[in-house]
Known about the structure:
Strand 14, helix 8 (244-265) and strand 15 (271-281) form a beta-alpha-beta unit. Helix content is 45%, strand content 17%. The chain has 476 residues and is an alpha/beta fold. It is globular. It has two domains: 69-378, TIM Barrel; 383-414, no CATH class.
Amino acid sequence: xxxxxxxxxxxSLLTAEQIQTVHQNALNILARAGVRIDSERAWGxxxxxxxxxxxxxxxxxxxxxxxxxxxTAPATIPIYDRRGEPAxxxxxxxxxxxxxxxxxxxxxxxxxxxxxxxREHMGIGVxxxxxxxxxxxxxxxxxxxxxxxxxxxxxxxxxxxxxxxKPLVLLIxxxxxxxxxxxxxxxxxxxxxxxxxxxxxxxxxTPLVLNEGTADKLIDSVERGIPFIYSNYGMAGASTxxxxxxxxxxxxxxxxxxxxxxxxxxxxxxxxxxxxPAYFDMKTMVDFLDPQSYxxxxxxxEMMAHYxxxxxxxxxxxxxxxxxxxxxxxIWLNHLTALIGKAGLAPFVGSxxxxxxxxxxxxxxxSDVIAQARLFAQGYPLDDQVINxxxxxxxxLREGHFITSQTTLSRYRNAYYNGLFPHIGLERWQEIxxxxxxxxxRDRTRELIESSxxxxxxxxxxxxxxxxxxxxxxxx
Length: 476
């Protein structure tokens, strides 16, 4: 329970009536438009369910079935690190952050040049994320371009699990590799459903298609007891209605379809729901984040809070031409609103150039933004003990300042934020050679990359994984 004497910023968008409006429209979409189902395994569950009707390749859901699924899904999901230690709980009202998304390129932190994302870059990036306390987990940073596509996902996951003990969010490009990847991780870690440290990330196809690969990965995850993210990506005016309200209703309907399937496979299956809402520029043929994207993201988070289902949403990354003003503005807007709103997990921080290039610079800068935004969201206490009127009166009358007051002397080291950039004035800036903020960021990023070390069992994990991949006989 929050203290009445604590000042804490909160952001709320939807009224109870508006939540019901979104929900009822989503139910209407599922009952009238339905969802195309491409997986025979998924059809095996829908065809046995009361309240699910098949017509050709589409399933139509009755409201009662959806309401049942909402009532059975867990409200919270405990996540562990690879060592089996508690990491965090999704659905507990806190916002968690992760770095990554399946980038095709690596943006050099010294020159900003981009090159095809390689296995070496995965190790560098994962160790960097591991060294930054602001990140609660590490997501798949990129698609390995120096490995045969038939085995690239296997090596990508192996590099991730070997270079951090933090929880992992896994995006698997080659869907047929999903079961072998789980088998490889079971060989390294053991039972993946017991104290889960990995969270597969699954995407249906918007608008209103549940593709075979996503459905089958969902079923595989549920059968193993692994919590997973079921998230849709919408481009307003292209794959979703162009209005925020229309996009929210349709995206919400897609999420509820995934929820229903998960609970049909196994009641109380752990699922995390959310959307990545974006816009589509018809002139440049590029999708992008807009201020309204963040409103839809926060509205989706409030819908999931209403359903009591853990949420995963957008991360504000992808915009910008590198570590620039456009990138910085978007991550500030996302991270601050996520923390004072109801967002649960922001798993994809650190990419630029339309989410095609992984940027260590943005990973480090965003870590600093997260820390500052968390401090803002924490608020501050407001009570007589903290105000301390007696000390105010005494110091004003006796000293005329608070430099030597008891409160200042006891708190000054931690009273304000000390982060990535030093607090200096004009004279000191000139003394040290007029450095740029960008160069300070580059220097710090280079230091972190050079000093970050893998876990002690790195060599053992790599050897175990490579032996497994060799036994599979896939091209490398």
